[in-house]
Amino acid sequence: MTPHDIYQRQFTSARINLLLMSVLTIANIAAYWFELGFMLPFSAFLPFTIFDFGYFFSIEWADPSVFIYGIVFASLILILYFLGYFLSKHKPAWLTFVLAMYIVDTLIMVYLFTSVFYFNGTMILDILFHIWVLYYFVMGVRAAKKLKQFREESSVIE
């Protein structure tokens, strides 16, 4: 396997992880909404939390518009993740953008887990899965840069 093939595989793996994480985030929101009683750890934290807070505060404040705002903001984040997946194939900078979004997602998750929420063992699993996804995104961004270098070198040789 050539270095080019290795970098192409890393880039593809990052994109597949992005798609899987986005789909599982939607699955978590649906499971919460339909009270199925489970959460999948391989997902984004912010869309679910914004949806959950919107639902909670719409009941707490007796204002359904808060829930609608929660749905809209959670959907916007998910749309950006899906755009990142579809557009990164031809514009790898989108993967860098998604990496930045997921770093923010992870930092907010760690902050809320350690300072606001009551910390329990399942939160460690969420943090570990976030680190896993971040690893794949970082490797994908690195691979995209290397693939770009290969293209530039091959165009110079020709």
Q: Kindly state the mean pLDDT as a whole number? A: 94
SS-based class? mainly alpha
Record field, number of beta strands: 0
Strand content: under 5%
How would you describe this protein?
- It is a single chain.
- The chain is an all-alpha fold and 158 residues long.
- The two termini are 23 Å apart.
- Helix 1 (3-33) runs antiparallel to helix 5.
- The protein has helices spanning 3-33, 46-60, 64-88, 93-115, 121-157.
- 83% of the residues lie in helices and 0% in strands.
- The chain has one domain (3-149).
- The protein is built from five helices and no strands.
Task: State the main characteristics.
158 residues, elongated, 5 helices
How is this structure best summarized?
With 158 residues, this protein is mainly alpha-helical. It contains five helices and no strands.
